[in-house]
Every structure is written in C-alpha cells, then in structure tokens.
Amino acid sequence: MRSTKQNQCKSEACRPFLEACLNCRRGWAKNPRERGMHEFFDTETTVFDFDEMAGHLLEQGVDASPSDLHGCLCGLLAAGAPAQPEAGFALLAQALDVDLHGELAGLVMQLYEVSAAALEDDEFDFHPLLPDDDSEIEVRTLALVGWVRSFITGFTRVNRETVRQDSAEILRDFAAIAQANVDEGASEEESEDSYLELVEYLRFAALNVFMDSRADSVAPEAPSLH
User: Fold this and answer.
1) What is the tens place of the pLDDT at every residue in 134-174?
2) Are residues 212 and 132 in contact, defined by beta-carbon separation less than 8 angstroms?
3) What does the record list as coiled-coil region(s) (predicted)?
4) What is the pTM of this model?
5) Domain spans, the chain
6) Cβ contacts of residue 19 below 8 Å, gap of 6+?
7) Which CATH number fits domain 42-216: 3.10.129.10, 1.20.120.740, 3.90.1150.10, 3.50.30.20?
8) Which of 1, 69, 196, 206 is the most exposed place for a label (fewest CB within 10 A)?
9) 3-state SS of the chain: helix, strand, coil percent to 5?
C-alpha cells in the first residue's frame, strides 16, 4: 500500500504518543490481527458485524460502507460532538447526506455510543471498523480510505476552527492517507504489513485528535485583569 508521492505522510506528530501507548498498554496482542474492534465490548460484538451492516446499507440504497459510517462518527466525536447517540445520528445524516431508518438507524446510534466509549477508554481499546482480515487487501484498503475520508468529513462538520498543531498535522496525514492505494509491485506480505501499520497509525492518531479536542473543551479560561 502506498500514498501518492506528493502527498506522502511525513508528520511525526503521533509517533511519541503511539510509542507511549504501545508501551503502557496491558494485554496488547503481539499480532494486531488477533484483536477485533469490539473485543472489549464483548456484549456488542454481534451488533457491529461488518457484512451485516453492509447488507442493511445495500437494502436501503445507501452508497456508503460501514467503514464510511464509522469514520464519520469518529470524526464527529473527535471534533467535540455531543456524546448523545441521537445527536451523533443527526450529524452523520447531515455530514454524509444519508437517510437511514429502521434497524440500521438503531445500529448506527449504538455504534456511535460504543465508539465514544472506546475513544475514552483508558486502555486505548479503539479500532476502526474495517472488513475482516480474510477480505482481499484491495477491499480492505478501499474501506480504510473510506474511513479516513469520512473521518475528515465528520470532523470538519463540527469543527471548522483552528486546531492544535498536532491535530492539524494528523489531519494533513489523513488527507494523504486518503490517497492510499495498493502497490502492485509489492509482495502480499509487504502490502499486509503496510496496511496493518496504517490501521495502527489511524487508531492512535484518531485518539490523539479526540484527546486534543477534549483538552480544549475543558481548558480553563484565562483570568480577567482588573
């Protein structure tokens, strides 16, 4: 997997954060493929089955994937959107211009609620919602690109103001990653390794942006001078 040459990700903003999180994380699997997004939320694992959600989207004629929905929801949360599921659902509909209803609407609101909890989890148990590892690398890459693009869409729906430097660099990285594609000259193992590295970067980059937004929202006001 690669990004277009002129847009390659050059930021080191998340590297110290990523290394610190990986060093302190308890129970982290040696192989990232060994963990699923909702392992921590084991009571919700059947709710967010990728293929099931994709089927609901297809039935409703929605031109979006589960990764698109999740990326947008996470972008909304990372920008400081309210944690209430109804608020997230309404913002998603506006950001992606979709009209979801029935069981799918309920699933999306549950996904928003669980994603908010995962972003706040002290053990960093947050994972992008992507196709299973037995899917073709091209399919997973397309979903990852969709997740990133939708994250940016969700974030800018809520926050169009200036962000902290680290977050700004991460968002520029996301824009570069959104141009990613599979390097046809790379071996299968190289493509898999590149994909997993990008997924891991997205996890902690999204967490970093989320925590920056939270820090800004609780920052004390400067005392007034008399």
Assistant:
1) 999 999 999 999 999 999 999 999 997 878 999 999 999 99
2) no
3) none
4) 0.78
5) 42-216
6) none
7) 1.20.120.740
8) 196
9) 60, 0, 40
